Fold this sequence. Notes:
This protein is of the alpha+beta class and 180 residues long. Helix content is 48%, strand content 17%. The two termini are 22 Å apart.
Amino acid sequence: xxxxxxxxxxxxxxxxGKSLSEWxxxxxxxxxxxxxEAVKYLKSEHGVTHGFANTIVTLSKAEDHAxxxxxxxxxxxxEDLLPIYxxxxxxxxxxxxxxxxxxxxxxxxxxxKKQFTLIKPATKTRIDLGLKLKDKPIGDRLExxxxxxxxxxxxxxxxxxxxxxxxxxxxxxEAYEKSI
Length: 180
C-alpha cells in the first residue's frame, strides 16, 4: 500500500496541478471540522478527483497530528538522540520546500519525488541514517545499507550532534539531488 500511496503523491502535481505541500498549504488556510468537508472543498472548489482529495486531506491530517506522536514514541527511552534528529530535520529542510517528512512507527522517511533519506533510532545510543546514493562507493563512515536493505543504498551511524557535519550534510544533499 505504501508504494501505491507514494506513486499517488508523485503523480499529484501532474494530475492535480499542485504538489502535496502546496495542497497542504491551501488546507491550512481553511478550518474544516470534518474530513469529508475538506474532501468536498477540494473536489468542488479545485476540481480534484475524489481519490486525490481524500489522500491530500488524510496526509494533511496525519502531518498535523501524528508526526509528533510517532517521533515522540520512537525516541521514548532514547531522548538523548532527539537533538541529533532535530539537527537532521533542520538541515534537511534547508534543501528545498519540495520535501515531505513522513514519520512512521519506527522511522522517519524524507521524500522528494522518492524517498532519499531515512532516519531511524537504531539503539539507545545511535541513530542510523539511511541514504539513497546509487553508485556511491562505500567507505569507513558511509557504510553499506545494512538493516535498511533495498530501501537505502548506504547507512551512516550517528551517535551525537557533531556527527551531523558538513560531510554528512553533503551526502544528504547529494541524495536529495538524485531523488528527482
